[in-house]
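We now fix the convention by which a protein and its fold are recorded. These numbers are not coordinates but entries in a learned vocabulary of local backbone shapes. A record is reproduced here so that you can trace the correspondence yourselves:
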Amino acid sequence: MAILITGGAGFIGCYLVHRLVEADQEVVVFDINVDNIEDKDERATYIQGDISNLDQVREVIEKYDFDSVFHLASILPPKTEEDPYFAFKINIEGTMNVLNTACKHGVKTIIYPSSATVFGQDRQPPFTEEDLRDPWTVYSSFKICNEIIGSIYSKKFDINFRAVRFPVVIGPGADPMSGMSGYPIEMMEDALHGVPFVAKVTPETRIPIIHIDDAVQVLINLWRSDQLHFEIYDIDGLWVSAKEIADGIKKVIPSAEITFKPAEDAMIQKVLTGIKEEKEKDRFGFKGKRLLDEILQEYISRKKPEK
């Protein structure tokens, strides 16, 4: 049985493809940007297609005998906020296309990466699956919508839908311009290239991060497990301050120049500094296992600056 990865040309998708083919899984990538992948795995099959095009989704799912789908295809901020109509077609209509077609063709499992942003700009950990969701962006509202739709399909059609709410995922290949909390990636990228970086947050600003390898392992654990009883899971990250990240980078790259100048936009600053305490216990055992020094060392060792 084959595995379909929508959005497999993206940051998380590329890492997931490599991990699954290493485990001798038959993997098919469906993404509109497959021609732009720099490190294609020759053991996988790559198909260019638009997730918002129902005919194209039907064609690929009808062609292969898929047992599982990792539905990663999504438009990220700031594009979701700049063009919500286009983002709706990809993030919502695309999900409906996958769910409907998958159910009609015997797909048993769908794994979907959601986001901790569903808890809102005043989010206060620890989080639980029952906590009030308070979306404050187009992106987070779409995530909640897909969680609900997937949960309904799970009950109505007996499909194994599992969503996981990720913290900020860190690793080589991540786009620092995507999302409100891209500054850890920007810090590392600029340090690698010898460029001074000004963080638009206070040194005390804390966010949860997870290394890309751990994030992929979480997705695989959810896919493999037959002991799960919920459609949606919250993932605890490593909670670190902006200063801790900067100090960690300077241990590896002593020449790194990092300063802090908090954003003047009151809403953005509220979002970035609204996390005040660390989640004490991970309820279901899905969490990142790397410490900050390990995350930074792995990022920098894998990433080579452009010449």
Q: What stands out?
A: The chain has two domains: 2-167+210-234, 169-208+237-302.
